[in-house]
Amino acid sequence: MPAGIRLCDLSELAEGPLGFDPFNEGQDSVLVILRDGNVYAYTDVCPHYGNTTLPWKKNAYLNNRGNRIVCAAHGALFTIENGLCVSGPCKGESLTPVPVIIENNTVWLVTSRAGENEL
Amino acid sequence: MNIIGPELLIFGVDDVAACKQFALDYGLTAADEHRYVALDGTGIEIYPADDADLPAALPTGSAIRKTVYGVAEQADLDAITAELSKDREVKTLADGSIEAVDDLGFVLGFMVTQRKTLELPAEAVNAPGAAPQRGLNITAVSKEDVGTPRTLSHVVYFVPDFPKAEAFYRDRLGFVTTDRFTHVGPFMRPAGTTDHHTLFFIQTPPHMQGIEHFTFHMGGPTDVMTAGTNMVNKGYQSFWGPGRHIFGSNWFWYFKSPFGCNMEFDADMDLHDDSWTARESMPGADNSQVFLLQYREKWAPMGPPPPGAGGKPPGAP
Ligand code: FES
Ligand SMILES: [Fe+2]
């Protein structure tokens, strides 16, 4: 068992990305995406202003085709695989990865190794 | 050149269904398949980004495809055509409107305005020392109230060269700068309105060019609050606000949107004429707002009724 916070069952991500508030801040601060069998997690903060969340409604993290993460404020697009902004105001900057691991079909936020992505 | 203000904003978006639902929840009305309007008929048009009939997108991919201004009469269209044809193509479209591209690459349209003249009361306020604006026994609010957008108010662009933008709108289209943020850009109003601004530019690197937000005027601050609360209750996410700006004095509440830009509600903007001298201040939180509130789910400083108080406790079936 890692030192961490349980986020969700892996199967819950099959429906689409999910936002979480693991530190009880009153708004989502982590987003988790399952794509092609891999799980990606980032802090829910757009690098453009550096202190605002991405989606226009809860869990609306992806574009219509489902191949890019979107910041709704000004339309920045990020790759799912490495969080790199490929279009929009923060082009060239990246979302901050969050370390998560999967154990027994459960997605855990790893709190003992902040800043290091386990995946 | 009697430009009144923005009449229509035309978008090419990634998720048409989400944008249409957002527009309805924001309080606009569907006038036809594409057009969603405020009470006076000004509004937005929503198309898929790959619609072949839309003006080309900016290289940055911003969803704004055209900004259409309303003018008072045909003579204004003729004057704009004469002015802009000096150095660029001005197309006359089938509906009689004209189209040209500004000095930064934004596609502009101009049409004789079709907006309705509204006759609606402003939010009425009672204050000691002033005659009551609301009569006796007239209540101001009810829980069900949701403010409705009255008219398209302003649009804000990220631009790579605000002096160039300001010069174009001032020298070619008769806009006036009402105030400015140093190194950021001017607030501008066209000659046909006294609104503090219908246009604001924010200086950015070229890869950011596009729309930053757009907004409709509401009937007063309470309408901003009720419409914004309604958005929150529907699951939309606030970006900034509610609060009150310093330049323009308008109340604001911004929401992120599927349009790839923020959509604002605003109310009670200052009015100016040509005797006004533009102010200038440094940008930043301190000069952007008189105050900023932050939304919290409804709450009151009291628990359930005390035992024996009668009535149903909250949540009782
Ligand atoms: S805040 Fe995310 S694109 Fe501007
Ligand atoms: Fe605004």
Automatic annotation (TrEMBL), chain A:
Signal peptide: none annotated. SUPFAM superfamilies: ISP domain (SSF50022). It holds the Pfam family Rieske. Keywords: 2Fe-2S, Iron, Iron-sulfur, Metal-binding. GO terms for molecular function: 2 iron, 2 sulfur cluster binding; metal ion binding. InterPro entries: Rieske_2Fe-2S, Rieske_2Fe-2S_sf. Residues 5-109 form the Rieske domain. PANTHER family: PTHR40261, RIESKE DOMAIN-CONTAINING PROTEIN. This is Rieske domain-containing protein. It comes from Alteromonas lipolytica.
TrEMBL record, chain B:
The keyword Signal does not apply. Pfam families: Glyoxalase. It comes from Alteromonas lipolytica. Residues 151-268 form the VOC domain. The keyword Acetylation does not apply. InterPro entries: Glyas_Bleomycin-R_OHBP_Dase (IPR029068), Glyas_Fos-R_dOase_dom (IPR004360), Glyoxalase_1_CS (IPR018146), VOC_core (IPR037523). It comes from the Bacteria. This is Glyoxalase. Keywords: Metal-binding. One of its GO terms (molecular function) is metal ion binding.
